[in-house]
Amino acid sequence: MMFRRIILSWLPIAFTISTMSGLGYLLVQQDVRQTTYDEPQRLAQDVANKLVAGTPVAALQLTQTVNIADSLSPYVVVYTANGQPVAGTGLLDNTLPTPPAGVFDYSTAHGEDRLTWQPRPDVRSAIVMIAIHGNTPGYVLAGQSLVMTETHTLAFLKLAAIGWLVALIGSFFLVGIREVSLAELQPHRTK
Length: 191
Prior knowledge:
2 domains; alpha+beta; two-stranded parallel sheet; five-stranded antiparallel β-sheet; 191 residues; rod-shaped; Beta-Lactamase
């Protein structure tokens, strides 16, 4: 009987703790995830601005390459209007990678696209694709590995889970102490 009263008193608290913990994790996870696009956005916009201003692709000096499968460095790839890669700093299997056609289509229709791209099962990047209109139409893709973002998110998930469990256990014991104390204060009834 006492245990049932403790559980019934504790359930609203447990629900509130669980909701707030989940919401807190979700907000931080989304903030960390969205900031992953900041560097690719800056890089893609800088290159797109140069191309729109008339800078030839060869003058962009996109010569220092990184292997996007194992590098944490941001990278950029320039594509023709037909989606063919012409220059870039990001290589996958020693070639300039090309995202699915839908990324080009969406970028054409909306000006840009921001998404998680997984060209291979072991490679995940946050990418920004910008469509270039005007005299020399094409596309600029910039991206960065999600390894660090996913590492930070997992670490925060572990901390959030520990905090959630501590709060649940602590609140259960406090409700239990309260219920026992209230029961002891009640006058004993005789039958």
